[in-house]
User: Which sequence fits this backbone?
């Protein structure tokens, strides 16, 4: 199925963006080199550090992606093996989450512009975090966990379009590839450590205690948009991007 979707995606990109000025390759001002790469990557990190909302998004993603890796790679498989019906239930749970995540993204894409981003993001983020860990810790049946993972999948589908939109509106076009490279590299570097840490905890204190501990850390992360004022800038990134992009062009 993956191969089939890739086969459909390739011609869509090959012919769908043909003739669009935005899709044309750009010539570099200077030849590519290791020195130029290091300088441009550093510029990306400096922009992230100087932009409170973008820095908050980056740090939040670092933490939550690591915790999500611990959930998907360790906690959920262990729970499915010890409390549920093994790989069958594991597959059904992941399928429910994925289908609902796609549905959430499609629904938000259709009607999301009618609502303010910050309240929607905050509520969806709270839904995505703690509930699944608590349900898995206190129940050994399939249905409650399937229901909460379906709800969380829908909320997760809402989160991703908001984060992508805010990022593209916040970062000037001249710096976009550098900033996205810096943030993506950071997330990919930290994510595997989440699975390693959670695996150690499961062996040390057992699955139930680990579920509640990781769920508590996730709750703290999801409270950040409620506590810190920088997150409220999500509703005004378009205006600030226009100013920033103009400054980048002048420079």
Assistant:
């Amino acid at each position: 199925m993956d191969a089939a979707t890739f086969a459909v995606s390739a011609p869509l990109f090959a012919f769908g963006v043909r003739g669009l000025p935005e899709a044309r390759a750009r010539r570099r001002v200077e030849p590519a080199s290791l020195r130029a790469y290091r300088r441009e990557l550093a510029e990306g990190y400096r922009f992230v550090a100087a932009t409170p909302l973008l820095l908050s998004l980056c740090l939040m993603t670092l933490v939550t992606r690591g915790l999500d890796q611990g959930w998907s790679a360790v906690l959920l498989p262990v729970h499915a093996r010890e409390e549920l019906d093994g790989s069958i239930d594991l597959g059904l749970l992941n399928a429910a989450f994925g289908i609902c995540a796609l549905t959430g993204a499609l629904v938000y894409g259709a009607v999301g512009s009618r609502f303010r981003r910050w309240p929607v993001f905050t509520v969806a983020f709270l839904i995505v975090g703690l509930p699944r860990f608590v349900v898995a810790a206190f129940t050994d049946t399939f249905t409650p966990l399937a229901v909460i993972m379906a709800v969380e999948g829908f909320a997760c589908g809402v989160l991703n379009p908001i984060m992508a939109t805010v990022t593209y509106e916040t970062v000037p076009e001249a710096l976009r590839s550098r900033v996205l490279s810096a943030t993506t590299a950071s997330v990919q570097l930290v994510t595997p450590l989440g699975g390693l840490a959670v695996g150690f905890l499961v062996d040390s204190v057992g699955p139930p205690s680990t579920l509640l501990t990781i769920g508590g850390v996730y709750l703290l992360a999801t409270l950040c948009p409620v506590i810190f004022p920088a997150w409220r800038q999500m509703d005004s990134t378009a205006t600030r991007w226009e100013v920033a992009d103009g400054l980048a062009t002048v420079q």
